[in-house]
Amino acid sequence: MKSFLIDRYVKGGALRFTESPQPELRDNDVMVEIHAASVNVLDAKIRDGEFKLILPYRLPLILGNDVAGIVVQVGARVTQFKPGDAVYARPAQDRIGTFAESIAIDAADVALKPANLTMEEAASIPLVALTAWQVLVERANVQKGQRVLIHAGSGGVGTIAIQLAKHLGAHVAATTSTANIDLVKSLGADVVVDYKKDDFEKVLQGYDVVLNSLGKDTLEKSLSVLKPGGKLISISGPPDADFARENGSGWLLQQVMRLLSFGIRKKAKRRGVHYSFLFMTANGGQLAKITALIETGVIRPVVDRIFPFEKTNEALAYVETGRAKGKVVIAVK
């Protein structure tokens, strides 16, 4: 099968277009003929080697963390899917590889594709929607009437997180650039802060939850927005010891991550708020719940551009500019 892969970690390096062996189908797997895949910042970070300590991949590695396609074969123990099913998924972190023509995925990580979405639209959803779900529903337990700040509101995670937070009944603020204010408002944000004109930490206060996907400066400024007991949840780091334990890391790596997050945890504690790092995990059951929200119109995908499969490197480069509104998708088939 045709694929795009990396042979070694190279910052900003191009993916190699090549022929790869068909993936092995395990008893609990479904084999998916890939129709579309979406590109995430995570793909660039893996290529650059930023996660090689916590995600020790064996190289060469086919990149790609989102997929929509058709089931063509099922493993011996799979009963919930059959050949011909249209599905979508974020494969488990140790079994990525959606920049290809086929992929084998554990059936527990797969859900039926929303009936009202195209393959390209569906491929834009899994990683960012699961991230938003795991931050807002699982980790933050957002309740009706709470105040939630979502940074980078026009980005892949932000566009879904705004809609989900509104569905949960929250008052939602979001940061974005001047050009994307109308988009972010259309998704349901109650307050939009143009980061090019205003300092969010000066105009927002008394928030229960902040979802951070940006750098250290934004992370630290977010502390002043939270009220005592509030939660600062970052998907861009620094990782903490709790994440290391959940990820199965050894004692030494746990201590490294404890040190990496020591500064922000100390500052958070001083303000009476809680800091945690979240690295989303594959979950077909949660994705099925997201499917229901999409099919009832609660959540809609935001797709910026669709690239043909052979232009996967161009798609990744476009994501790295940081200018995409919502998601960038690759049409494989």
Structure description:
By secondary structure, this protein is of the alpha/beta class. The protein folds into 2 domains: 2-124 and 301-331, Medium-chain alcohol dehydrogenases, catalytic domain (Quinone Oxidoreductase, Chain A, domain 1, Alpha-Beta Complex); 127-277, NAD(P)-binding Rossmann-like Domain (Rossmann fold, 3-Layer(aba) Sandwich), CATH 3.40.50. Helix content is 31%, strand content 26%. Strands 3, 5, 6, 7, 8, 15 and 16 form a 7-stranded mixed β-sheet that branches. Helix 3 (126-139) crosses helix 4. The longest helix is centred in the middle third of the chain and has 14 residues, at 126-139. The two termini are 12 Å apart. The mean pLDDT is 96.
Brief descriptors of the model:
Rossmann fold; Quinone Oxidoreductase, Chain A, domain 1; 12 helices; single chain; seven-stranded mixed sheet; alpha/beta; 333 residues
What is the compact description of this entry?
Residues 12-330 form the Enoyl reductase (ER) domain. The protein is of the alpha/beta class.
Given the structure, what is the number of helices? 12
Number of strands: 16
Class inferred from helices and paired strands: alpha/beta
Shape: globular
Distance between the ends: 12 Å
Beta-strand residue fraction: 25-35%
Helix and strand run: EEEHEEEEEHHEHEHEHEHEHHHEHEHE
CATH classification class of the largest domain: Alpha Beta
State the CATH architecture of the largest domain.
Alpha-Beta Complex
According to CATH, the homologous superfamily of the largest domain is Medium-chain alcohol dehydrogenases, catalytic domain
Q: Low-confidence segments, ≥5 residues, pLDDT <50?
A: none
- Rg, please? 19 Å
Helix content: 25-40%
Mean pLDDT: 96
Domain count: the total is 2
CATH topology (level 3) name of the largest domain: Quinone Oxidoreductase, Chain A, domain 1
Largest sheet: 7 strands, mixed
